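Morning. Coffee machine broken again, so started the prediction first thing and wrote up yesterday's gels while waiting. Chain of 95 residues, entered below exactly as on the submission form.
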Amino acid sequence: MADISAYIGFAVRSGKVVYGIDNIVKCTKRIYAIFVCPTAAKNLSDKAKLFSERHDIPLATTETPLEDIVHKQNCKAIALLDPNLAKAARNAIGR
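Came back before lunch.
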């Protein structure tokens, strides 16, 4: 069984990730899931929640910091653009 870091890693390697809440809001491609870091500020979490509710996009908070998963400093929010990887990552969080 793979954990969420494996699925997000696959998405990073295939270029199917948008980094940062501002880039997520500006993104014109179809977003299938948004993941927020547990260490994210309340303002960022609220903005991600509002955006996900408006566009009917699943939102989840990871257990480990996103910085460790995507290997980018100060990364607090990502969006996945691949439907299969987004579904697998959401299911991995539910375990």
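The first strand starts at residue 17 and ends at 19. Going to sketch it on the whiteboard this afternoon.
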